[in-house]
Amino acid sequence: MGRHIPSFMPSTLGFVMPPQEPSVIFDQKHASEYDKRFAKLAAMRDALHLLTGAVFADLPTEARILCVGAGTGSELIYLAQKFPQWRFTAVEPSVPMLDVCRRRTEECGVASRCVFHEGYVDSLPPSEPFDAATSLLVSHFILDLDVRAQFFRSIAERLRPGGYLVSADLASDPASATYQSLLEVWLRLMRETDATPEKLEALRTAYARDVAFLPLDRVRAIIASGGFAEPVQFLQTGLIHAWYAKRA
Q: Per the database record, which ranges form the Methyltransferase domain (predicted)?
């Protein structure tokens, strides 16, 4: 299977990155300033983490969690602090981002419960099945829909039967008036990141070129085709939609 381009905001919101290797995009300076840049939008991230914790709340006391596209580790740290006996595997292809993730987990005192894997799900060494997985703002960068389904299949193969997936992505029908209206609101929101008008226009262009915006029913179908039972949408924040599903 081909390599998957990760989210430009793996644990936060919805900017996009050009179709280059993450090591090219994420130098050390960018990675170290990443969380500060999007701090004003943290409420959206926090809502996703809060509800993810509720979805996972009945997992075993010593559950094992796979975080795909872990970024700087925000959802991992939230879950690790909420569930003090869980163990985590952070999968992230960007070395600077993974370094920030590792440092933040050390500062929060949870690094001893974490494994850090530089790379992609399909390069992760074999292990015992995970109880749950997160994939936050990752799959919408996979433009080939068959490859996107295979991405979810690669996660399902790592889960125990009945294991949970929480997946969040940018989603909407680009041909609809609803999308066009919501996109304008979204771009106003992105002003909070101090993006210039030029950057906002570049973002509009990138959404049309580099992001697989799909209607919600199509996203659900792709997740299900990767080996999951019917996904349930549990959150929408602007253009971000989140689903949970159990491995079939």
A: 65-163
